[in-house]
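Protocol step 4 of 6: record predicted structures for both targets in the notebook before any analysis. Target 1:
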Amino acid sequence: MRGQLAVVEAWLAAVDRADVGAATALSAPDLEVVGPRGSVRGREVLGPWTARAGLRTTPLRWFCGAGGAVVVEQDATWADTSTGAVRGRAVVASRFTVADGVVTAVQRHDDGLPAALAGAGLTAGDEVTARGAADSAGR
């Protein structure tokens, strides 16, 4: 499970720095992206999305389970991409599915961590509290 955490961590870092090439390489061709405005498929959506979103996130908590399920609670900030002015800030949770070393699905849960965990089939017991401990436990 450690590998799926590394994939999500690298994917989030690529999105934060608007590195579309890196985010695309870490995404399945039929990536599903679900957000408050609906759902789209295809990793080609990453370029336009990162160009307009101005999203920066700081992971707060990590959860990992079977079947490639990863949930990350994040402090998210949206900024105007032309001026850098902050447009919004919230604590959100993102649910990921990882398979074969790439993100196959990502869904932002504005309704919070409990909904993201439930959607992923995870519980508070699946929290990864320390990367070193996760490595030795196989997570």
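Target 2:
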Amino acid sequence: MKKSAIIAAVAGLCAATSAFADGHGASGDAAAGERVFNQCVACHVVANDAGETLAGRNGRTGPNLYGVAGRPAASVEDFRYSPSITAAGEAGVVWTEEAFVAYVQDPTAFLKEATGDNRARSAMAFRARGEEDAKNVYAYLASLAAQ
């Protein structure tokens, strides 16, 4: 499949499912996701628009994950993203549950597929232990957006 066809397919899939990304499409267990998120706090924080920290310890290595459910990839203002995740955002990747789960299980493989670039690399070293943990973290993060 050509690079442009892959990008169009990923963008179309993400756009088609983004309507459910506001938390209603989260199939995981938010309470379990809160426990799993403890592995993410070294790099990530969840701070709302008022600046209140809802989760994490002000990690600055990764972007603020507040409102990540349904947000386009690489879209947090003033965060310096890697070229590969920026390319994914430009290709139309939106953090639906499906995209988020795939990314946190194997960030580099996800970016290679989403961008069509076999040289794409993720700056995120962490990997979720499995699909259930990834879905649970997504559900937890989606639940925080309502606060």
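Step 5 preliminary note on target 2. Residues 1-24 have pLDDT under 50 and may be disordered. The CA atoms of residues 44 and 63 lie 6 Å apart.
Proceed to step 6 after PI sign-off.
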